[in-house]
Specification:
The structure holds 2 protein chains of 2 kinds.
Chain A (H helix, E strand, L loop, with lengths): L6 H21 L6 H6 L6 H12 L2 H14 L8 H21 L5 H8 L2 H34 L3 H50 L1 H15 L26 H19 L1 H8 L4 H33 L21 H9 L4 H37 L6 H32 L1 H11 L3 H13 L5 H21 E3 L15 E3 L2 H26 L32 H18 L2
Parallel strand pairs in A: 1-2
Chain B lengths: L4 H21 L15 H25 L1
The chains are: A mainly alpha, B mainly alpha.
Amino acid sequence: MKVDLSWIDYLIMIIYFLFVLGIGVFLRKYMKNANAFLEAGRSMPAWVAGLAFISTNLGALEVMGMTGSGMKYGMMTTHFYWIGAIPAMIFLAVFMMPFYYGSKARSVPEFLKLRFDEKTRGLNAILFAVMTVLASGISMYALAILMENLLGWNFNLCLWISALIVLGYTYLGGLSSAIYNEVLQFFIIVIGLLPLVFLSLKDIGGWVGLKAKLAPIAVAKGYAADTFTTTWRHTGDALANPLGVEWYGVLFGLGFVLSFGYWCTNFLIVQRAFAAESKAAAKKVPLIGAIPKMFIPFLIIVPGIIALALFNDPTKGFTLPLDAGGKPIYDYTIIMLLKQYLPAGVLGLGITALLASFMSGMAGNVSAFNTVWTYDIYQSYIRPRTSNEEADGKHYLKVGRIATVFGILLSIASAYIASKFGNIMDFLQTIFSLINAPLFAVIFLGMFWKRTTGHAAFTGLLSGFLLALLHHGLTIPAGATTLVKGGWIAVLHTYPVEMAQNFWTAIIAFTVSAVVTVGLTFITKQKKSDEELHGLVYSLTPRELDDSHLSWYERPVGLAILVSVICIVLTIMFW
Amino acid sequence: MVDIRIPIGLMFTIIGLLISIFGVVTMSNTEMYHKSMGINVNIIMGLLMLVFGLIMLYFARRKKKT
């Protein structure tokens, strides 16, 4: 089962490590104050921030998980990309970015403070800080266990070295270094996985050969023959597709609540657009990121679907490691495919691509954590700003650097907890993932309805979160054996698959939060004056400057139309 | 600040050269390329990376002049 690496593979990894750290060393001299360190001095060109935007999202769990999902759900996994990301990214770019960037807020919690009040910011900042540390700990654990099982590396060594490299370049060069490296990592991920896509497709006889091979597998599982190679065709009935969700669940749960919650409010992602050099550039960031995003399924999901065909064809000799319960570990699909097709040389490149995806995700977590800690917790509650701006800049730079070290140490600690109590970590992550959907409801109402009050937003956020928690406690996916998956209060409803439960939890969180916020807005008093809300709310912000002198592809709306057209064409092609 | 295309260009040029040379040296090793169906993916990917690296460097240099 082990993957054997040769000297050339290690040499490629070492060259990559040197460049990643080198970028940090080189940027060190520009880190003169907190603004440069935590916000990249708001100086990034749109294309750099745009690629970093998508690279942060392309973490190790995404790459490993989506290839595994490709194997489990087939082409329907693209719902996480086409319907489940692109509309939200366009909405963020065109409608939300002007207020986020124009507000001069340095983080999403700070936007909540400017638009609503201190308590809403505090609640979000603390939940977000805990969530980022958990997320980076879990992905660190996933990477280290993968490397231990399949490359024979030492778990502890792997954990500490990967953490120290990320610490090295984020400590030295801050957000700029994270962003620059994310661009480099983006290209390494794409180029490193490219040979896998071509070789596996060639082996299986192209798309036509793949369809032919998957038809009997789908029929044997009780689905229609083309289930694994289509996306929307079999969503009329939840039981007719492996995702276990109907079309309206996909459309509203994934396409609206989950994706808008993630893409429009998750500071980890949005921070890349905050670092853009101008408001016009910030609006373009998510749209530039959307272009590669639409094609990533061909890089990571299609090989997963091919793995399903290989797995059912004994002549191919493709296997997956089994877990303690004897079930295949789907998350290992990508690395077993690398082993199957890539000879020494490009194999090292493929492993480097996995390491790069891990680092881009982890650096994203760390740079978002240190910003929220420094500005939204330390500066707000521990040591407020003084009149001396220059000394403050230096002081908060130091705090930001210390927060970087602590963020990484806490991630390592949570990786060790995950290795001992994996279920608890899964549970915590499920719970903290419930904060995004209510957050989107509140920010959306805040941006487009000037009456929305602070008390209403805070209560909406909290009640959406608690109700989602209650729903998780009262429902369970079919076949679940642990309370971690739900039903820890009582079981009132059973979903066919876990995915369906996730969708409905998010839908409930969003709906409750929106209803409570709207309801309470009518009975509480708006404490912010119209002047204070200038630039934060749609109706109180002057219209954009005219950009009609630019060519269509330089204008956000032109780019947004291009992205929509490509996305619609892809959806129809694989309907 | 530094132009990000310079480190990207340098890294891809170096790794591209390395992999393509490795591909040339191992060309006669049919056992090794059995996995990739007899295709020498190292030469192909190496050259692709080299070209990509040089294009990045070219654009970084052209911008510096203007």
